[in-house]
Structure formats: structure tokens, C-alpha cells
Design a protein that fits this description.
Structural class: mainly alpha
Shape: elongated
Radius of gyration: 18 Å
Mean pLDDT: 92
Number of helices: 9
Low-confidence stretches: none
Distance between the termini: 60 Å
Number of strands: 0
CATH class of one domain: Mainly Alpha
């Protein structure tokens, strides 16, 4: 049996968009065929099933977000400038119409928690990596003297992550950029004081 030839990243990014737009349950194989350009048989051959495609999409999403994260902190001498830029980007995404408004991990977790243990496990691992990247950033900010030691970097990151989840959820019902900017500024002030 010949394996299907396709651009894996392109297919996974198309699947990410589909899952962020409609959610896992409401995304049909026909939807996936339409966005990926692959026939259902090719999807099954390459990813075993729809859940396998979601798992691969979550891995790609995590990789894309890790690269984006690096972008915000690689050129900044001031760590907090990168944190501010990261929050501004989150606000910008949340205030727009379309799938970029959603976080694939958060959407899949909300929809599939306790129903799909493997999906939940992958999301938990991705979230742990995301938090570890932020902890390293806040450790650097502490070394730079940008923040004090009144709270550990891990405590600051826990507040930040909780705030980002809340910001994304809040944006679902009130996507006004002015409001979201104010909330992001409050979050920034809280985690950096």
C-alpha cells in the first residue's frame, strides 16, 4: 500500500483552523476533506482516525506556539517587553472574528475533557511546556532585576496563565479591544509587581 504524499504542516494547520472554528465534535470528515484537500481514506491512512488528526494538530499547534513564543523573547533585552507584546498579541487575536480568536488547546480541553483521556494528556503536556517556557522567562526577568522576589517565577506564571485563559474566555462574550486591552494591562501589572 502506497503512503499518501502531502505537506503535513499545511494539512495540520488546515485541521487546526477547522477544529478551532467548529470544535472537534462538529468538525466532520467532509469538513476535514474540504480544508485539507485529503480524502477521508488518506486522512485515516496518515492519522488513523479523526482523533489521531486532532492529536497531530495539537502537536503542530504547540510547535507553532513555541516558535511564536521564541519570537517574542529572542530579540528583547527586557523580558517584560516581551511579556507585554505577548499579551498584546493575545488581545489582538481575541478581538478578531474568525478561528484565530480561539486557542485550540483550550477549545479542545473544554470540549473533550474527561471524554478523551489521550487528548487531555497531550493538552496537559503542551500546557506544561508553555508554562515552563514562561517560568524560564520570569526567572530571567528576576535575574535582570525587572521583577522582585516577592513571588516566585512559577507563582507569577500561574497567575499569568490563569489570566490568559480568563482573557480568552471573556473575549468570547465581549471582544471589545478596549476592554480586552484594559484587562491585559491589569494582568500585566499584577504579574509584574
Amino acid at each position: 500500500m502506497r503512503s499518501a504524499e502531502f505537506d503535513r504542516e499545511q494539512v495540520l494547520r488546515a485541521a487546526i483552523t477547522a477544529f478551532m472554528t467548529k470544535g472537534y465534535s462538529k468538525t466532520s470528515m467532509q469538513d476535514l476533506k474540504k480544508v485539507t484537500g485529503l480524502h477521508p481514506g488518506s486522512i485515516y491512512c496518515a492519522f488513523k482516525n479523526k482523533q489521531g488528526l486532532l492529536l497531530a494538530a495539537l502537536e503542530q499547534y504547540n510547535e507553532d506556539k513555541a516558535n511564536e513564543f521564541t519570537h517574542y523573547f529572542s530579540g528583547n533585552t527586557q523580558v517584560l517587553t516581551g511579556v507585554k507584546s505577548y499579551l498584546n498579541c493575545t488581545v489582538s487575536a481575541c478581538s478578531q472574528d474568525g478561528p484565530q480568536k480561539n486557542c485550540l488547546s483550550q477549545k479542545a480541553l473544554n470540549e473533550l475533557a474527561e471524554q478523551e483521556p489521550l487528548v487531555e494528556q497531550v493538552i496537559a503536556q503542551n500546557m506544561k511546556q508553555w508554562q515552563e517556557r514562561f517560568v524560564a522567562i520570569f526567572e530571567q526577568a528576576l535575574l535582570n532585576g525587572e521583577i522582585n522576589n516577592s513571588r516566585t517565577p512559577k507563582q507569577r506564571v500561574q497567575s499569568l496563565v490563569m489570566g490568559i485563559y480568563g482573557l480568552r474566555t471573556y473575549a468570547q462574550t465581549d471582544p471589545q479591544i478596549e476592554v480586552l486591552n484594559e484587562l491585559a494591562n491589569q494582568l500585566f501589572d499584577d504579574v509584574t509587581r
